[in-house]
Task: inverse folding
């Protein structure tokens, strides 16, 4: 099985533990995306595809405020988890297991907006893989539509190549939960190990591994411009309130 699928299939049941309050996060992120969509001329009639939906962190929040959302992800485990959470949230979302490098195999229709949040694109470890993803995504966007994605601020991270991310420490009803990542660098690639430590009724330690490519903003911008997009802009956390830089590309 693909390393990305294995990573997210394993993480699916615990992904919400990366947040203090997952439901609150879905609402906040939906508000952030809603503003971006409106600033780019879209309303809630827009057809949205979340092509890296995970457990539905963005998609469910968007559906709750009235957007028409379709979801796909390469991970069967995360799709299953997202379906359960969508049902619990009483929203109707069409889910498909699909690779965002080959969206046309799963979708015949095009979308006004495609999103890929939470550092999904840097799973592409080569230029050819990244270009395949960009081509696949832009081909499914209607003329005049937009692609919205978030990635880590690798332009800054590549200066020092930190060996870990700061831990998140969450107080729970029965104790504490700590999550953090270690990063082992090889050039501009790195192996990420995600740890989740639950110190509640019993101590539980979970570990998940994957690989990423630290993609610079200029590279992604140029790939989008050379694959059908007419305009690309970047939004930063101080302006949006989102924890990562966000790229908005107009087709």
Result:
């Amino acid at each position: 099985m693909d390393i990305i699928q294995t990573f997210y299939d394993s993480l699916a049941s615990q992904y919400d533990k990366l947040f203090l309050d997952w439901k609150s996060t879905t609402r906040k992120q939906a508000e952030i995306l809603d503003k971006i969509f409106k600033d780019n001329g879209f309303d809630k009639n827009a057809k949205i595809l979340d092509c890296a939906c995970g457990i539905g962190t963005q998609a469910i929040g968007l559906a709750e405020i009235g957007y028409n959302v379709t979801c796909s992800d390469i991970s069967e485990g995360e799709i299953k988890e997202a379906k359960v959470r969508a049902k619990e949230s009483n929203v109707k979302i069409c889910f498909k297991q699909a690779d965002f490098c080959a969206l046309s195999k799963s979708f015949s229709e095009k979308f006004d907006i495609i999103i890929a949040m939470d550092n999904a694109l840097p799973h592409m470890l080569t230029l050819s893989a990244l270009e395949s993803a960009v081509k696949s995504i832009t081909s499914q966007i209607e003329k005049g539509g937009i692609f919205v994605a978030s990635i880590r601020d690798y332009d800054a991270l590549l200066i020092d190549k930190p060996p870990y991310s700061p831990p998140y420490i969450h107080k729970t009803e029965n104790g504490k939960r700590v999550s953090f990542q270690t990063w082992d660098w090889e050039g501009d690639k790195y192996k990420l190990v995600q740890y989740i430590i639950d110190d509640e009724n019993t101590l539980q330690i979970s570990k998940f591994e994957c690989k990423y490519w630290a993609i610079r903003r200029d590279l992604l911008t140029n790939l989008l411009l050379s694959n059908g997009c007419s305009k690309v802009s970047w939004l930063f956390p101080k302006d949006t309130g989102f924890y990562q830089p966000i790229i908005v590309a107009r087709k």
Remarks:
- Helices lie at 3-11, 22-39, 59-64, 76-88, 127-139, 154-160, 217-225, 237-240.
